[in-house]
What does this fold into?
Amino acid sequence: MTERKPPGVPFESWVDKQIRDAQARGEFERLPGAGEPLPAELESGYDELWWVRRKMAREGLAVLPPALALRKEAEDALVAAYAAPSERIARKIVEDVNVKIRDMMFKPPPGPPLGKKPYDVESVVREWRQRRAAATGEVPGTSDV
It folds into this structure.
């Protein structure tokens, strides 16, 4: 629609004509969502960030406060450390996440408290050795360092 509203024509009449012309050209046929019920978020009231939430859901994104994001990262790091192929890698994963936890403990960001303290690297490595031994049948304490 590149036409400009002619002078003297009421705006409503001009818009109605544009819609009728587009319908006649078939421009409203086969639109995405045609014939489907409206999304549930439209029934729950107005949300000015609806498009942001929809875009984030479509892209698989999530935004957490920094403390919650680090809490999730710490839990994921612990799982990754236990699944690491070597003691050296398990140790590195835990030490790296501990640096981030300590930073947040001493410089807390806005939002909820972290609720985590640094992991005991030796305890995690000891658990890693036990899990590794149980999974592979090797004797604990004979892996690489």
About this structure: The chain has a mean pLDDT of 83. The chain has six helices and no strands. Helices lie at 11-24, 40-43, 50-59, 66-82, 87-106, 121-136. The CA atoms of residues 37 and 77 lie 42 Å apart.
